Amino acid sequence: MSEPERGPAPAERRDGALLVVGDVVTDVIARHRGPLASGTDTAAAVRTVPGGAGANAACWAAYWGAEEVRLLGRVGADAVEWHERALTASGVRPCLVVDPQAPTGTVICLVDTGAAAERTFLTDSGASLRLDPGDWSDALLDGVAWLHLSGYLLFSEPSRALVAAALASARTRGVPVSMDPASAGFLVELGVDRFLALVEGLDVLLPSRDEACLLTGLPDAVDAAAKLSRHVPLVVAKQGADGAMVARSGTASAHVPAMPTAPRDTTGAGDAFTGAFLATLLAGARPEEAAREGCRAGALAVERVGGRPPAPE
């Protein structure tokens, strides 16, 4: 008997919660204009805000209308109450494990306030990558219709083991699983072959253009998305100002254009896309329509400072 085809069925509403497993960190965002001045001061506007790719995506999914969003992450005792309040205020039900040793992860985001609003990250993962199989329970999937994993979980041994446990649990229960690869820089360290082996059984992959090209060795994002979709049934490659490419089973099936925007800070734009995409997919939309909503969310995100959506009214 052949195995059932993987990947989400088109236009199928899924009743139940979205469970995101991933990083919860504190972002220190420094917005400066022009190159950094080595050895002296560079004027900047500095803000401290809640962040983390997994947490950001969860908040955007809730903002985009997902009925119930849950988040499993690990933080230090230094900031657990602050992060719980921020997540709850965004409509996300937090399940935060307090690490007895490591502090909450911190990311310094250097944002050039020029036209592209490009950013550079300095990352101290802290407690966020210390999630381990002991933090996982099959009961976390009770009432869950979709599981989303932050790719940052693959960049430490304990959280890689958690990913394996979560994937096995989801497969047993028939819960679809998606992942955002998270970081081209960390992917280089992990290795392409190892990444593809670790995500075996995934239903949806949401890479950036750079990540898709890195994972396939192809310079063209369309070709890269098509090739990746031979490993994962549905690939949605985020291409920033060029929109998104949807690919299925080895074929690029649709290009979704980006929404016009005036970027201030591109931090979290991909997370916004992911959250809105998943919320729309869970509501019963086809992947192309969900990608369109993802582009809308990404456009809104880059007009804001920080990686989270506007506060609920």
TrEMBL record:
Residues 18-312 form the Carbohydrate kinase PfkB domain. GO terms for molecular function: kinase activity. Pfam families: PfkB. Gene3D superfamilies: 3.40.1190.20. The keyword Kinase applies. SUPFAM superfamilies: Ribokinase-like (SSF53613). This is PfkB family carbohydrate kinase.
